[in-house]
Specification:
Number of helices: 4
Radius of gyration: 23 Å
Number of domains: 2
Largest sheet: 12 strands, antiparallel, barrel
CATH class of the largest domain: Mainly Beta
Strand order of the largest sheet: 1-2-3-4-5-6-7-8-9-10-11-12
Shape: elongated
Amino acid sequence: MRSILLLVSAWLLIGNADLPEAVRRMLDAAYASGNEGEVATLVKYASAAAPESAEAIAREADNWRAKRREAQAAALAGASIIELWRGRAELGGFVSTGNSDVTGLAAIIDLTREGPRWRNKLRLQADYQESGGIVSRERYLFAYEPNYKVGDRTYIYGAVQAESDRFLGYDGRLSASAGGGFGAIRSPALTLDLELGPAFRRTDFSDDRTESAVAARGRVDLDWRLTPAITLSQDASAYLQTVNSTVASVTGLNARLFGPLSAQISYAVQYESTPTEGRRTTDTTSRASLVYSF
């Protein structure tokens, strides 16, 4: 239903401007895609190809965006909380160094629901390796982050994360945080989000110790579309506290193959300032994965 509304809105606008036929065909294709980044790119080149129609092209594109947002808002208003989630599922292998030098399988699911005021993000991750009946790597993560949009670029976030990685020295770790976020860059090709706020962490170590402490949490999330088919991403986070600080970074390069399927390589680093005895401070993980977007 949502796609129909968007296409109908675009069709109603397509006939409003008297444009050269070649330019009209380009814009028709961009509107039909429903991708604002593609529309912005084609508007730029169409305006250069037909400068006498640049004003009409820009006005029509603005009207298309406004109608599209109205259709999206109407669809969201009538949808239940379990509808309109978008995301990606990643499945691949990894090679790790540090506390475990092994190869194995990894699975990640990222989900996002974008609303007029609320953005909800959910992440599930599992890394597992078993050789000769002996588990040599086992990491699980669950993260949920609701965002309340205060303005076009500012938002208030909450974040809850539960993880387990006994090869890093803890059986369970629960983190909760709240603070402010800012969309420092918003463009069709590049986005950059920054978050900062206080946090509380409880860690159950593998040596039966339990540690609870207040921390400062920071996060950087960058996505840079180098070409229409290739995207570079950088996601880094830090929990800084007096007893044990954690810094994590994931750098990824995604290449679209066809349709919803893409290939991705990534490199992750996790640093623990005060690991348990016999553990190293730094773990790295390299992955090659297939990604399905939906």
